Amino acid sequence: KANEIWMSSALSNFKTQAINIVSTGLNQYVKPIESFIGSKLTWGLDAQTAKGVRAQAGEAMQTLAGLKSYLGDALLFAKKAFNEEDSILFAGSTKFDLGTTKALGQSRVAKIIRTPLRALTAADEFFKQINYRSKLMTIAVREANAHKGLSKTKVVGKLPNGKKVTEYEAWIADRFKAGFDETGLQGVDKEAARYAKEVTFTKDLDGALGKIQEVVNEAPILKLAVPFIKTPANLAIQAIEKTPLGVFGKNWKHFKGHSGDVVRIAETRGRVALGSTILFTSALLANSGIITGGG
């Protein structure tokens, strides 16, 4: 109970909520741009892999353009997440791990106290939904294009408004639907889920950071000193990955192109290239006195 009150208090500042919305909103545009840049960096790759990496330019732009297509769904589920106090798309995946959720109960007063937590959950749900769906559609189109037997002219059905549906369009619609569980609410596509969680800084932690998170969750009193772990850790990881250091560790195989995963290769190379360019440009401008920290 003390943790819920403490964490709600920590998030009660409007500026904190605004920063979360702005940073996540910017990240959803930065990620496709990074992939687009990475699609141009095909050095050292075999012909087949290079072709796949170059194709990421079109996929990145499709993902970016698709964001506006799911605003209605995103708003609907953001409201639902606010009311249910949990992520709808990825149950239990939020920016905070309370161990015991809703410890204050379900009374009106308890819900009012948890309003900052609910607001953060709703904002994250909005961005998760819109990015998951946009990426899922991109994946569906990619796989449909790889399925050479699909006809773009053969009509296999009609929509309620009378619009004809081709075999190609029906296949994409079915693949998109397969990205959700039987309830149609929870996302089950691994690639789209990873993408949406990275955009919202809610990717599950592993390794040493994952162990630290487990220890804190098992000893709730530690939450009073370290209320948030997942989001700060994801922010730090993504910041490092945007520097030259981002080529090392698990990303090395993608940066070198050895993984053969054209999506991750484009992401990794583009992320390091864009981040390093901004970093070095800022350093040069600061060194020349053009920008300062003096306000």
Descriptive tags:
295 residues, mainly alpha, globular, 2 strands, two-stranded antiparallel sheet, single chain
Strand content: under 5%
Q: Please report the distance between the alpha carbons of the first and last residues.
A: 42 Å
What is the residue-mean pLDDT, rounded to a whole number?
Answer: 90
Largest sheet: 2 strands, antiparallel
Number of strands: 2
Structure description:
With 295 residues, the protein is mostly helical. The chain is built from 13 helices and two strands, in the order αααααααββαααααα. It has a two-stranded antiparallel sheet with strand order 1-2. A hairpin with a 5-residue loop joins strand 1 and strand 2. Helix 2 packs across helix 13 and helix 4 crosses helix 7. The longest helix is centred in the middle third of the chain and has 32 residues. The two termini are 42 Å apart. The model has no long low-confidence stretch (mean pLDDT 90).
